[in-house]
Write a structure and sequence with these properties.
By secondary structure, the protein is an alpha/beta fold. It contains 18 helices and 8 strands. The strands form 2 sheets. Strands 1, 2, 3, 4, 5 and 6 form a 6-stranded mixed β-sheet that branches. The longest helix is centred in the middle third of the chain and has 41 residues. The chain is elongated and about 90 Å long. The protein starts with a helix and ends with a helix.
């Protein structure tokens, strides 16, 4: 029996060494720790380069999968140690074009085995279908492997896959159904798979186009708000632009933070501000101009409402180093406008706003009563 065949036979028999460990266990020892270390490194690199992705995950290939791969490709793999994807990491981006940006980062920060890495987006035929993904076989870079935490992992190869969230959805569905997309698939099903793959590619492109259109609109809104607020409907981008650029919004946030004995954050949380805008729109504030007018008219009420409401916050809700976000003034404008409504309608709106957990209907009514008393 040749050496490779003997090694494969030993793997299949799963021989045990003098310490009672199997060859698989010896080979994967430490890979989980390496995976966690590299995952944290990739997250740090992404953050340092201003990149946001859906997820970064790692896994060590299960024994059964590793054995199956060695058995099927015995001409290439002789034992578990010859597998280059026993450890695998997967980076899922939000958009298809971000795959290239993340790929460039991986190529810069890791030592890439070019011969065994593949960009499946480039090799798949135009008339074929299948998930698109970039697969790198890498090692920790020479510079980084000199560091204590990486030194014991020097020379160990592992896989990094990069794909968009829709490409990932395709791969997961394909795997779950159990079909490999090739000629063995029945013709009628292959046609349906092709149509679905095409739809996912179009969806990836459309999401990217929507992102670009949204960015362009945000820039347009910023310019318009600087010139005039007239004619601007209240939406996600206009309320964010208003909080960022209007003097009255900043004054309100500062006053509310002072009333709550809190520090106002300088950065803007887009999702938080957009959520306030959506709620105010439901409460009848339809335009940026109307938002400014309502804020000016009820400025002192909003601040006093915040002071009374915050006075009942617990120590857990209001720690010593208490920070509040930009747009906090419009949260309390929301509360104030809710207090104008009858209890039943107020309760329904709180449910619609998904605020019922942290806010009690009666609590808003009680604060409103205290506010009215203080104004008499």
């Amino acid at each position: 029996m040749t050496g490779s065949r003997c090694q494969l036979s030993c793997i299949m028999a799963d021989g045990v060494d003098d310490q009672g460990e199997t060859s698989y266990e010896r080979t994967v020892a430490g890979l989980e720790a390496l995976g966690a270390l590299v995952k944290n490194l990739i997250n740090a690199l992404l953050a340092a380069n201003g990149m946001s992705v859906h997820s970064v995950v790692h896994r060590v290939k299960e024994k059964s999968s590793a054995l199956e791969k060695v058995q099927k490709k015995s001409e290439r793999y002789t034992d578990f140690a010859s597998l280059t994807d026993l450890l695998g990491l997967r980076i899922i981006t939000f958009f298809e074009d971000e795959v290239d940006s993340v790929s460039a980062l991986i190529e810069k920060e890791f030592q890439v085995d070019r011969d065994n890495s593949v960009d499946k987006r480039q090799i798949i035929d135009s008339d074929r279908f299948g998930y698109l993904s970039v697969h790198y076989i890498v090692e920790v870079s020479k510079g980084r492997s000199s560091l204590i935490e990486y030194s014991k992992f020097a020379g160990i190869k592992f896989e990094i896959q990069i794909r968009s969230i829709l490409q990932h959805a395709w791969a997961e569905i394909e795997h779950d159904i159990g079909y490999k997309v090739n000629e063995t698939l029945p013709r009628n099903l292959r046609r349906r798979f092709s149509r679905l793959a095409g739809l996912l590619e179009v969806a990836d492109s459309e999401f990217k186009a929507l992102r670009e259109a949204s960015r362009a609109y945000a820039q347009e809104v910023e310019v318009k708000i600087e010139k005039s607020q007239t004619g601007l409907a209240l939406d996600q981008e206009t309320v964010i632009g208003h909080v960022r650029g209007s003097e009255i919004s900043l004054r309100l946030d500062i006053s509310v933070a002072d009333a709550m004995h809190a520090t106002l954050e300088q950065s803007l949380r887009r999702t938080y501000i957009a959520r306030q805008g959506g709620r105010l729109q439901r409460l009848g504030v339809r335009s940026v101009e109307e938002l400014s007018q309502t804020t000016a008219k009820r400025f002192e009420e909003i601040v006093e409402f915040a002071r009374i409401y915050a006075s009942d916050l617990t120590e857990d809700e209001k720690p010593d180093n208490f920070h509040v976000p930009r747009g906090i003034g419009y949260l309390y404008l929301t509360f104030l406008l809710l207090s104008d409504r009858a209890p039943g309608e107020r309760r329904k709106l709180l449910d619609d706003f998904n605020m019922q957990k942290g806010v009690e209907t009666d609590e808003i009514g009680r604060v409103r009563a205290l506010l009215d008393d203080s104004r008499r």
